[in-house]
Amino acid sequence: MTHETPSGAAETAVLSIDGLSKTYAGGFTALKSVDLDIRKGEIFALLGPNGAGKTTLIGIVCGLVNATAGRVEVFGHDIDGDYRKTRARIGLVPQEMSIDMFTKVKDAVAYSRGLFGKPADPGYIEQVLRDLSLWDKRDTQMRALSGGMKRRVMIAKALSHDPDILFLDEPTAGVDVELRQGMWQVVEKLRQRGKTIILTTHYIQEAEEMADRVGVIRQGEIVLVEETAKLMAKLGRKQLILQLAEPLMSLPPELTVEGLTLAPDGDALHFDYDTKADRPGITTLLASLNAAGVSVRDLETRQSSLEEIFVDLVGGAS
Ligand SMILES: Nc1ncnc2c1ncn2[C@@H]1O[C@H](COP(=O)(O)OP(=O)(O)OP(=O)(O)O)[C@@H](O)[C@H]1O
Predict the structure, then answer these.
(1) For residues 41-67, average pLDDT
(2) Which Pfam families does this entry report, sorted A to Z (predicted)?
(3) Which residue CA neighbors atom 18 of ligand 1 most closely?
(4) Residue-wise burial string across 56-79, b where 16 or more C-beta atoms lie within 10 A, e elsewhere
(5) Do 249 and 176 fall within a single domain?
(6) What's the pLDDT score for residue 7?
């Protein structure tokens, strides 16, 4: 399947999902006719609250869960018709850790490669371990690693057979801020190695900081797919903060302008406006301030974060 890039050139999707649905045995429908194309070399964040269907989607693509309806193609090959070929091009870092704690790092990663029937390649395994800053720990048993290192071993295992597409299912769940940022750097490095990365997350900041595109999934439906930057521009609201030369006790009556509020300590005015509107009304606001004799010491604008957009879209949890 192809799609148009912003420059207008057709580009092949590395992963193409078409009308994918899943109803579990108990009758619960976890995915409802999902369509999604993933572009080569991108970092795509699948963002959604608990139970939205993210893991089910990954499970189907990786052959762990059977779809009820729909079609998935990896590099143009149907996953059902060509399972071995398509699965070999995908690496999966699952949410839960599944490693024997007495195995050494290097052996755990080499073993994973063997599961794909690929011949041993110590040079490649070394490169993977170096990329993930695990080379020094290659002979350490899993049980002696920190939590962050264990997560990186999970990534190394998923990369052991040199896949083109890497799924990271909540790579930073329960991880502190520092480790999370370390993980972002790892993901960026993998992209530079040419991998296409799809990660699931509940963390809005993660999608905003890392992803080229964001897909929002809610109750089994993709409700939005957009380039992160465009999404910000399209849906973002801005806030203008006006630092006052003299604090105000209350907002003067002649300044009853929609979207204008006085900061709690009275030293600033906050003006919320829609960047999509033809005229955000800033000129009028400044004229009204002037007329009311209110002087402004400084101005700054703030872009709303994807978090607010997400809360708007999905209303928090499903
Ligand atoms: N084996 C199963 N049998 C029945 N229902 C299931 C099964 N696996 C998942 N579900 C249900 O399908 C829905 C989607 O689950 P899924 O794990 O795909 O969501 P998720 O978006 O990955 O959630 P989280 O962010 O919490 O991991 C949930 O309501 C879940 O309870």
Answers:
(1) 93
(2) ABC_tran (PF00005)
(3) 53
(4) bbbbbbbbebebeebebbbbeeeb
(5) no
(6) 42
> Which atom of ligand 1 approaches the CA of 65 most closely?
1
- The reply to whether 81 and 167 lie within a common domain is yes
Q: Do residues 206 and 251 both lie within one domain?
A: no
Minimal-distance CA residue to ligand 1 atom 11? 30
Residue 55 pLDDT exceeds 70: yes
State the pLDDT confidence band at 162, using cuts at 50, 70 and 90.
Answer: very high
Token duo for residue 190: 């993998």
24 lines ligand 1 (CB under 6 A): yes
Q: Where is average pLDDT lowest: 60-69, 153-162, 291-300, 308-317?
A: 308-317
Looking at the structure, do residues 141 and 248 belong to the same domain, yes or no? no
Beta bridge partners of 45: 199, 214
Q: For residue 55, how far is its CA from the centre of ligand 1 (angstroms)?
A: 7
pLDDT, greater one: 288 or 34: 34
Tell me the average pLDDT of the chain.
87
Q: Are 215 and 46 in contact (CB under 8 A)?
A: yes
Domain at 169, CATH number: 3.40.50.300
Query: Ligand 1: which of 23, 28, 172, 201 to mutate, most ligand atoms within 8 Å of CB?
Result: 28
Please list the residues that pair with 299 across neighbouring strands.
242
What range defines the domain where residue 283 resides? 237-314
- Report pTM: 0.77
Cα separation, 287 vs 42, whole angstroms: 46
Report ipTM for this prediction: 0.96
Specify whether 308 is located in the same domain as 241. Answer: yes
In the chain, the number of structural domains is 2
3-state DSSP assignment of residue 105: helix
226 within domain boundaries: no
Question: How many CB atoms are located within 10 Å of the residue 29 CB?
Answer: 14
If you compute the radius of gyration of the chain from its CA atoms, what whole number of angstroms results? 24
